[in-house]
Every structure is written in structure tokens, then in C-alpha cells.
Amino acid sequence: MLNLLKIEWLKIKNYRAFIVISIFVVLGVVTTNYIVYSVNKNIIGNMNTGGLVSKFSLYDFDHTWQTTSYATGFLLILPALLIIILVTNEFTFKTNRQNIIDGWSREEFIQVKLAMALIIAVISTILVFLTALLFALFSDSSFALTGISHVGYFFLKALSYNLLAVLVSVWIRRTGFAIGLYFIYLGAENIISQLLDVWSIKLRSDGVADLGSMGDYLPMNASDGLLTFPDNAIKSIAKSSLPTDYTWIVVSLTIIYIILFYWLSRRRIITTDL
Amino acid sequence: MAILSVDNLSKNYGPIKALKNVSFSVPAGTVYGILGPNGSGKTTLLGIVMDVLKASGGGYTLFDEAPTAHHRKQIGTLLETPNFYHYLSAVENLKIAAAIKGRGAEDIDRVLQIVNLAHRKTSKFSTYSLGMKQRLAIGAALLGNPEVLVFDEPTNGLDPVGIAEIRELIKKLSQSGKTIIMASHLLDEVEKVCTHVAILKQGTLITDGNVDEILVNEDVVELNAADLQQLKQVMQQMPGQTRVDLSDKFVQAFFPSGAADLAAVNQFCFSKGVVLSQLQLRKKSLESKFFELTN
């Protein structure tokens, strides 16, 4: 696999889109978190909330892992975009055929793409870890790993986003259509998810059943639902009327969806004409 | 040893049958031409052999073994179009190809020399002309000096000088003992470089074997006399002829290329009591042979 990854690196190291998107991601993570940090400190911090909202620093060690994971989660479409471009490029240039002709097996071709999706998810997660650490070091709190599980959830979310990008790319093959479909799917699933959430609340308030937030059971919303903004007082009050939080179900579903994306992508490349 | 053996290979694209039970075998050391008009299934056939397409039926072997990716590493292939990363230079593209084949980068300069691209080796692939792209693809196939080469329409997009160069290259490679499988719709190209040929028409293998036997040039003698039936019978007795056809206006007698002697024909007919009113030699062109085979 190391040898395959070296070849993959030859393909992308001089590719401008790769370099540009990578820079965007790094700058984006730091900037996004700085904006959240700054808004919390300078606006919320100076607001007179009459004691209704408990004020706390989002980036002290008790909250930084959760805040950074949540805020950075919105940027995961950038690595996904990069993956769609890299995978559909192979189809555009017909280099998917050439790689096989030159002596890769179909298995090797798809496994290295899936490995890239994994590596990009790992790098994104490391970036979140470092950013969270950096911001917390500037707070006055002492080191703690409270809520570090959110960094793990971020990794699952990154992997979901990246593998869906691979799946869409190997099915659609055309760069523009693949990117379009990816975003349309994310949007459509969000709408359905919100309708399901409203239904969940109704079921609970009617005393019919408490099935948790059903919107979180959809493929991309499962990993989205794992990442939440740190609770404040108002949110805590609202929580009592929301459906039960079945984190373990959502984590399991996220992992099942990841396996499904992996399996479908692989199957597509192994069994069809390239 | 057979480099490639194709056994009852079929391929359907929906209702369209692109290949119908094609079987043939490529012996080692031959230059094997796969000939056929556009859409006859040449590229489909090679695509299946290279595992970029899935066969609908039948199978094939490479080097007398079940085909694997490892076998493809030992074959230099140009299939249909030059496929390279547009944003990378020739050298960067060839580095990727060499790495996939499991060979070092040291051969890159040599192949770029052969295909006359050394002076543009650091230019991006997207800046290449059609002919240069084709030459780079041929260069990529030559990487690592493989014993077997597969060329699908190798002279596509090349200028006359380029075409002549590639023909020379193929001949040279063949003389050094390499096996070359070449698909083409250019008859003249196949005739000039191939030792063996398989002819495809609409997915069906029409014939295969030694090129001298299949694409044989024939001399055709057109004759006319008062009694065409009698003329035909007489000509059938003539030594040296391979076939005699009767049409409504004349009789055609076929001879091996260069073997028709009109004076001898005239004398033979006269001695058998037939007076010829017409006697003419027509060279049968390869083209008409090809049309005959594929129509």
C-alpha cells in the first residue's frame, strides 16, 4: 500500500487544485475558529444577558475539543471537494484505464483512493486537534481532555464526507455532475432530516414514542448529529423537550454508513467497465 | 508459447453485440495485426484483454496463464487514446507509468529519445499536439523494454513522417524478437508490418492466420469469348490458376500474384479451340480484398 500511496503522491504533488484547496483548508480552520472565538469573547462576553446565559470561554480546555470539532465540521466539504476532483480527474483523463493497463489491479486502483480518503480524514482530524490545542493554550485554563471524544466524532464525520465523495465520484465520473450531486444530496438530506426531527419531537410530546432525533439516522446527518455546539443555559432548558439523545445509535449508524460507502465504491470499480 | 489466447470472447453493450465468440491465438515473436473497419470490435477486444472492460462471455489467457495485473506489467500497451495527467509534464507522467509497472525512472530518457520528445520532456501534457500525445503514449508503452507490445491504432494523429517512423520502430522491435499485437483499420499498415492477421467485422472474427495467406495479392485475368460456359471450363483446366468465376459479361481467372502470363493464357485457350475476344490483366488491390472480406 505504501508503494501505491507514493504513486498517488506523484499524481497530486504538483497539482495546483490540490495545493490551493489544502491551503484553503488550513487557513479556513484557523480563521473559522478565530471568528467563533472572537464573537464569543467580544460580543457575547460583553452582552448583558441578565444571567440567563451562562458565560464561559468556548476555547478553554473544558470546551475547546467540542467547539473546534463542531466549528471545523462545516469546512469538511472542502476536502470532499478535493477528493471528488482527484477521483473524477482519473475518469476525465482516462488515467483510470491507463493505471490498470500499466499493471495495477482494479482492487489496487480503488483501495488507494479509499486510503487517500482515510488519510485526508486523519490529517483533517490532526489539524482540528492542533487548532483546539492552540486556542486552548491561549485561554487561562489548565490542560484537560474533557470532551476529547468530539475529536473522534469529527474523524467519523470527516471519513463519512470523504467516502461519500469517493462513492459519488466513481458512480458519476464527471467532475461537475459529481460535485453538483454531492451538494444537492447534502442539502436534500438536511431538509428531510429536519422534517424527521420535527416529527420526532411531535411523537415525544404526544407521548407516542421517543425514538431519539430520527433526522440523525440518515447517512450524512448521522455524523453531523454527533457534533454539537457546547451547551449554554437556554439550550439546556430546551433540551428537556427534545427527544432523547441516542449517541450510541448514531455512532453505530455512522460506522455502518462508512462501511457501506466503502463497499459500494469498491464494488463499482471492481465490477464495471472502466 | 501463446502470448495471448482468446477463447470465445463476447461483449454486449446492451442490445449491441460488440464481440461475438471471437477465438484466436497470438504466437510469441509475431507481429499480429487485428484488422477491421471502424466499430468492428478491435478496441473492445483489447480493452477486455487489458481488464478495463468486462467480457460478457468467454475468456482469455496471457502467457498461457490466467491473466493477472502482474502479466500486464510485462506488456507495453497503447489503448485507443493517449491517457495522461494533463497538468503534468511528459517526464512526470512517465514516472507514474514506470512506478506502476514496477520499473525505475532510468528508462524515461531513452524512450523519450526514441519517440523524439526529449526536447519537450518538461512541457505539460496539455500543451502537446495530437501527434506528440500519440508519440508520448508509444513512448510510455516502450518503458522498461517489454517483450510484448500492444498498439491500438499506433499511427493515429501522426503526420506522414511520424507514420513512417512508427512503422520503422515496429519493424525494429519485431526484429529484436518482440511480440507485437497491433489493431488497425489501415490495411496498408498491417500489410507492411504484420506477420499474422485476424480480421474482425461487426464483432465476428472472419479469418485469422498468416498475413501472406490472408491478404494475398492476386492477379485477375478477365477473358471474353463467344461461349462463356466453354471458356470457363477451359480455364478451369489451365495449370496455375487458383479459381475461375463466371459473370454475365466475362470470365475471371485468378492467379497468384505475378503468376499470370497472358500470352500463355491466350495460347492455352486457342489450343483448346476457344478464340478470345478479350484478354486483360487486372491487379486485384488489397483494398478490394479487404472489402471482399468485410462486406
Task: Itemize the secondary structure elements and their pairings.
The complex is a heterodimer of chains A (274) and B (295).
Chain A: H1 2-12, H2 16-44, H3 64-73, H4 77-92, H5 95-102, H6 106-137, H7 149-172, H8 175-205, H9 219-226, H10 233-239, H11 247-271
Helix pairs in contact in A: 2-3, 2-4, 2-6, 3-6, 3-7, 4-6, 4-7, 6-7, 6-11, 7-8, 7-9, 7-11, 9-11
Chain B: E1 2-13, E2 16-27, E3 31-35, H1 42-49, E4 57-62, H2 69-73, E5 75-78, H3 90-101, H4 108-114, H5 130-142, E6 148-152, H6 160-175, E7 179-184, H7 187-193, E8 196-201, E9 204-210, H8 211-214, E10 218-225, H9 228-237, E11 243-246, E12 251-256, H10 262-271, E13 276-283, H11 286-294
Parallel strand pairs in B: 3-7, 3-8, 5-6, 6-7
Antiparallel strand pairs in B: 1-2, 1-4, 8-9, 10-12, 10-13, 11-12
Q: What report would you give on this structure?
A:
The complex is a heterodimer of chains A (about 270) and B (about 300). Chain A is mostly helical and about 270 residues long. Chain A has one domain (about 1-270). Chain A has 11 helices and no strands. Chain A has helices at about 1-10, 15-45, 65-75, 75-90, 95-100, 105-135, 150-170, 175-205, 220-225, 235-240, 245-270. Chain B is of the alpha/beta class and about 300 residues long. Chain B has 2 domains: about 1-215, Rossmann fold (3-Layer(aba) Sandwich), CATH 3.40.50.300; about 220-295, Alpha-Beta Plaits. Helix content of chain B is about 35%, strand content about 30%. Chain B has 11 helices and 13 strands. Chain B has helices at about 40-50, 70-75, 90-100, 110-115, 130-140, 160-175, 185-195, 210-215, 230-235, 260-270, 285-295; strands spanning about 1-15, 15-25, 30-35, 55-60, 75-80, 150, 180-185, 195-200, 205-210, 220-225, 245, 250-255, 275-285. In chain B, the strands form 3 sheets. A 6-stranded mixed beta sheet of chain B has the order 5-6-7-3-8-9, with helices on both faces. Chain B has a 4-stranded antiparallel beta sheet with strand order 11-12-10-13, with helices on one face. Chain B is elongated, with a radius of gyration of 24 Å. The mean pLDDT of chain B is about 90.
